[in-house]
Amino acid sequence: MKNVKILFTAIVLSSVQAFGQSATDGTSEKPAKGDFGFGIGVDYGGFGGRVNVQATPVLGIMFGGGYNLAGFGYNVGLNARLSPDKRVVPVLLAMYGYNAVIRVTGSLDVREIYYGPSLGAGVQFKSRKNPKNFFNVELLVPVRPSEYENDLNALKSIGVQFTEPLPVSFSLGYHIGF
Which stretches of the chain are DSSP H helices? Predict the structure, then answer.
């Protein structure tokens, strides 16, 4: 619990400090209040879109939704842009929503979506012409629910064959700032 309090205090203090800083390149461009993007990954709901609203230049609130091959998937969460004034921005995120899917076709039709928390880290590559726009690449670690593992094992026991899912997932998208 002590570590959580220290981490929370550090994030709050860094966001207050970053909020008071001016842009490093000396331009008078106002930072984006948020962004909207299209992409692929659990934070985009599968194949879909994601909206980020910046509460401060460092901390943002996100919502993503899209089609994940079994239905509609969504995620909501927080992101922290560690160096928001740089052209290459490291990002940390924590979210809750869809993070696994089982889809079986053929004589057995199974479409299940599983929900749980996911943590991730990534990088935003800002455009030179308009720094409010950027490419987003992330590595996500889903905390999949036990019912997902139970359902996988049940399907294996009746002879359904499939490749094992990776313990991590990746995300790629393009965002336009507003």
Answer: 2-19, 146-157
